[in-house]
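Hey, I'm writing a tutorial for new members on how sequence and structure tokens pair up, and I'd like a real worked example in the thread rather than a made-up one. If someone can provide the structure for the chain below, I'll link this post from the tutorial.
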Amino acid sequence: MSAAPFDDRDGSIWLDGSLIDYRDAKLHVLSHGLHYASAVFEGERLYNGSIFKSQEHTDRLLNSANVVGYEIPYKAEEIEKAKLQVIEAMGLVDGYVRPIAWRGAEMMGVSAQQNTIHLAITAWDWPSYFDPDAKTKGINLALSRWRRPAPDTAPTNSKASGLYQICTMAKHEAEQAGLHDALMLDYRGLVAESTGANIFFVMEDGKLHTPTPDCFLDGITRRTVIDLAKQRGYETVERQIKPEEMANASECFLTGTAVEVTPVGTIGEYKFTPGKICSTLADDYSSLVRTGSVAVAAE
């Protein structure tokens, strides 16, 4: 990833309806989105000039805004067009696209009914999220002390910025311990997800097991991998998973826009061996996002 700071780069950003110079994309320090986390966003990957499942991301962005109580003042087709304008302006073929919507600064306080809703779309180069060796060896995760909140305490079915504060805290603690990331449990003490990706296990029955997404996002990549697994003849079981059940898993991997399909080597005391199922699904996913299809036969 480029070492240039994200507020000092060449190029263009789409802001509130038009492309502007990258460095001119500013917001006021009293914006509600900064003080009260009233912002929603998406993370999207660009492969060979096309955003993977772009429409699904746009639909989720609009839904996230509705969940947290406001409406983005642009239709889905306008957002789709704006993303293409940004990609062309930045000259990208492979990269990362970040739409974000937030409440402005007309009112300052918890109430913000009169605040203007802003929308910005940016894009940049995006290399591997983890060290390339992780694709074969597997990444190492801490078991975080921070937990995903209950759905009646936070808008857990939205991609809202405020939900990521504990993710940053958990990831920083893991990195300070020399690890790649952290596994977060949910409010019940059950396995939930990593700081920014869903998680799968290959259990003793040979099936894929993944937590039911009832207090965290049912990721777009997650659903894609479940479909790919089905094509391969791998059965996926969605259920509540207790932490101690990780001792019965042979393989473990994360799925997400940033991490794609990444094997896990350890989570705390639990050890896994990156194997055939993870490798196969990682290859299938790579083929799908870059060519639009996967030639597989059920095994």
